Records
---
Amino acid sequence: MLAKLQKLGVMPSLSRPSVSNDNPYSELLFRTLKYRPGHPEKRFTGLPDARSWFDRFVTWYNVEHQHSGIKFVTPVMCHQQTDIDVLVKRIDVYETAKSKHPERWSRATRDWSHITSMVLNPTNETKASKQKAA
C-alpha cells in the first residue's frame, strides 16, 4: 500500500525521517480535545452523535477558545483581524498599569503586538531571525 501511495506521489505525513517536530501539533490538539470540559465520558452512541460533538468542538476551538500561541485571541478573530482592537486595548491596560505602579514592573510589559503569520515547522533560519528580533 505504501509503495503504491508513494508511486502516486503521496508521502506519509507522520514520523518523517529527519523531522522530529511534525507530530506535536496533532498531539496538542488531541490533548486539548480530551481535557476540554464536556468531553464525553462514554463512547458515542453512533456516527451522527460523534459528528455532532466534533462539530461543536471545532466551533469552540476556532471561535471561543483563546490560543496562547496567538496572544490569547481566537483563530477566527485573527483571520478576520478583529484581534487588533483587543490587542490595542491590552497594550493600553498594561501601559496604564505600569505607569501607575512602575515599581511592580522589573521588565517590559508583555508583547501584545498583532501576529501577521504563523509557521508550524520553522526552519533554523526562521528561528534565528525570530530570536534576533526579540
Note: The chain has a mean pLDDT of 85.
---
Amino acid sequence: MKYRSRSLAVAVGAVSLAASLVACGSAQSAGVNEDGQKQLIVGSMPSNSLAFPYTVAREQGFFADEGIVTETVDAKTGPELTATLIGGSTQIAVGTPENVMSAMDQGQDLVAIAPFGKIDMQLVVPAQSGITDFKQLEGKQLGVVQRGSFAEKFARAVLAENGVDPESVTYVAVGSGATMEPALRAGKIDAVVATGSSVVLVRSHGLDVKTMVNTMDGTNTKLGDYALQTFWGVTGAFKKANPEAVLGFCKAMNRAAAWIRDDANRATGVASLGKLLDVTPEAAEQIWDSTNQSWSPSVTAEQWGKNVEWILGEGSTSLPYADRVDSSCQ
C-alpha cells in the first residue's frame, strides 16, 4: 500500500496547502474521499521511533478499520510539529510535552490524545572521553536536537538531579541522529542527549559511548517513573467538529500500541522498525526490545499533573486534566 506524505516545507506553502485542504477538508473539518473514508492530515516525524505506533497503524490497516485514511506531513522537530497543528497545516500531530504544554499554557486550544509515550532519553559521552562523573560535565558542550527543545529540558532536569548547575553547561544544537553522531565523533560536543534508538544507531556505526543517564532503566534519574515523551495533539475546535474522526484515530493508534506491546509481533515489528529507521536488523531488534512497552492507551490525572509541573514549574495548575486530556478512548 502506498501512503501520501509531504515535507513540512511543502505543507506550509500557501499554494500546496490550499490545494490539499480543498481535497482533504480543512483545519476545522475532516474531508471524505470517494470511498466514504474520513481523511486526516497528520503531523509526524519521519525516521523516528517516537512515532512508531503511527507507522504500525498504517501498515496493519488499523486506520482503514476505522474508516480513516491519513496523509502525513513530515517535520523534523517537536516545535515544528506543534506549529503545524496551531497553524492548521495538520489536524492531528505527535508532540512533546515541552512544546505542546507550553503552547497550551500560552492559550492555544490544544487537547492531548492517546497513545502516550513513556520518556525514552539518554545522556551519553564517548567511552574514551574520560568523563566518569557528572561534575566533569561543567563547562562542557552538550548536544541537543534544538535549542529550547524537549531534549534541552530533559538535559537541564537530569543535570540538576545529579548536582550540576544546568547553566554551567553550553547547549549546542546538533539535530537528530544523522547530524548528532558526526558532531560527537568529531569532538564538537562532549556529550549528547538522545533517544534510545539514536544511541543504538550511534553504537551500530562503531562509536562507543557510555550511558550516564537512561530513563528506561532508571540510571541516574527518576523521570522515567512518570515523565511522558510524546502524545498526540488536536485542536479543541477540530475535536469538537469531528468527534468520530478523532475517536477513530485514537482507537487505531491504541490498537497499534497494543500490537507493539505483544511480542508475538516482534519479527514483523522489527522489520518495520528497520525500514522506518533505516537500521540493520540487529539494531532494530535492540530498539524493539528496549521500547516496545513504551506506549500506553491512557494517562492518569496524577501523572498528567506531574508532567505539567515538570514542564511548566512546580505548583502549576494551569492545564487541568479534564480540559486538556481526551479520555474518550482510554
Note: The first strand starts at residue 4 and ends at 7.
